[in-house]
Every structure is written in C-alpha cells, then in structure tokens.
Design a protein that fits this description.
single chain, alpha/beta, Rossmann fold, 2 domains, 8-stranded mixed sheet, 9 helices, 8 strands, 42% helix
C-alpha cells in the first residue's frame, strides 16, 4: 500500500474507507511509525480504515507532545474529511502502543475531540527514573552523595514526566471522555501496566472496557509477517527458524484479529486463521 506524508503525519488510505484511525507509537520508535509499525497499520488499512500515523520525538513534557500530535492529526483529519470521505463526520478511533497509549489518554482527557473508541497496546506509566536507566543510576548516586552535589545541579537529578504517573491516573479518573476502550497486554511483557489502567477505566465507564491478554511481548505490535526461507538442505537451524517464525506470526496474527474484531466484529470473520 502507498504511504504519503501530510502535515507532519504519515497516511495510508484504502479505497472507500469507512472510518479513521489515529496511531501513536512507542517512545523510541515513534519517529518513523510508517516503518516500525508498517505491517500492523497496513493491515488496518486493508480492512477499510484510513490510518493517520503521527510521528513525535520523546521529551519529558508529555502534555506538550500530546498537544503537538493532536495539532498535526487535525490537519490530516481535515484533509481526509474534505477530500476522501467528503462528509463532516466519520468514526474515529485512537490506537496507541506503549507511550502512545499515554498520549491518547491525555488527548482524551484534555480535548473535546469525539472518538468512537481507543485501543491501547502494552500501556505503561512508569516514572522517569524507571523508564530511563541513566536517571535511575543518577538518582541512586544523588542519594548516596547528596551533601557533595552543588545546589544548582540538584534539580537536574529529580526530573519527572509531565504529568507524573500519579497525575496521569488522577486525570484519567476525573476527565477522560472516551467511553469505549480495548486494552491489550502481552503475556511475556514485563514492563506492562495495562491491568492498572483497566481498573481506572472500568471505574470511570463500567462495562465499556475490554481487556485481552495475548501471546507475545512488548515488541509484538511492531512484528512483521515473517517468512523463513530454508536452504537447499534442510538443517536443524531451519527447523528452529520455522518454529520461531510460526510463534511470532501466530502472536502477530492474533493481535490483528483481536483489534479487527473489536473495531468491526463482522469483518473479523474474513481474516485468515
């Protein structure tokens, strides 16, 4: 499928799309979502969704990033509504992976943009010192040698994301406006905090939050449909390669099916098993 850049976004649009998806990726791979998440996003386009993937560069000010990606998206949304859909409203879904989840939560709490639902993959909401190993090491250093650190440098060792993890949960509990939400966690993801988000959303909108645990890990949403090509002579390495390929493909296909089923239950039956 053909990608195009528009107003700071990357778009992949099928013929006669039925709805729109705004995608935000993880912190360290979000600068080129059309590459790092290509297979997943093109799959969604093949299912009839106009996909808008907004790149961003990570900073400590997540509020500012959320405002920036929303401004970029609105430019693409205006173009799609006028030139592609040719009507003033179509269903809009947010899709986020890792940090992209937090940004969609901030957008859903701070803006009045109407959404049909949000999909969250591998949500995490750790403090800066947990997310950035260097900060954790410096925090330990400052605790041990606090008396030797000049006062003017002390604030540099106590930085935190804006909003902080606690502030983020409080904001969601009080202001998040998107009622229908799909949460997906992966069984081998050791940095996932989806269950805590599920608890918050369930309290805010009882009966409107769906939580699935799938096979895979934190990187599964960036997976590709791998095809192992054995050599002229089949070897134990080929057997191992095919075994790993089958597992990775199975996890990735299950992720695609789960998202598609939630977005459109009827269309899910047309996906390959």
């Amino acid at each position: 499928m053909e990608w195009r850049e528009l107003g700071g976004n990357w778009l992949v649009v099928p013929e006669s799309p039925t709805a729109m998806i705004h995608f935000l990726g993880g912190a360290f791979v979000a600068a080129a979502p059309q590459v790092t998440y290509r297979s997943l996003l093109e799959h969604l386009a093949e299912q009839g969704y106009a996909v808008v993937a907004t790149p961003f560069v990570n900073t400590f000010d997540h509020e500012a990033i959320a405002r920036q990606v929303l401004r970029s998206f609105l430019r693409a949304e205006e173009y799609l509504l006028e030139r592609v859909f040719r009507r003033s409203y179509v269903p809009l879904y947010g899709l986020g992976h890792s940090m992209g989840c937090k940004l969609h939560l901030l957008i859903g709490s701070r803006s009045s943009q109407e959404r049909a639902g949000n999909v969250f993959l591998s949500f995490n909401n750790y403090p800066a010192r947990r997310s950035i190993p260097f900060l954790d090491q410096m925090s330990q250093f400052s605790t041990q040698f606090s008396s030797q650190i000049p006062p003017q440098f002390a604030p540099l060792l106590n930085v935190e994301f804006t909003p902080s993890p606690t502030e983020t949960y409080t904001l969601i509990e009080r202001q998040y406006q998107v009622r229908r939400n799909l949460l997906i966690r992966f069984a081998m993801d050791d940095i996932d905090q989806t269950r805590s988000l599920s608890d918050v959303l369930t309290r805010r909108f009882p009966g409107m939050t769906t939580l699935h645990t799938l096979g895979g890990n934190h990187l599964t949403p960036m997976g590709q449909d791998l095809k192992w090509q054995p050599g002229a002579t089949f070897t134990p390495l080929d057997a191992l390669g095919q075994f790993m390929q089958q597992g990775l493909n199975r996890d990735f296909i299950q992720l695609k099916r789960t998202i598609t089923r939630w977005l459109n239950p009827v269309a899910a039956f047309n996906l390959p098993k």
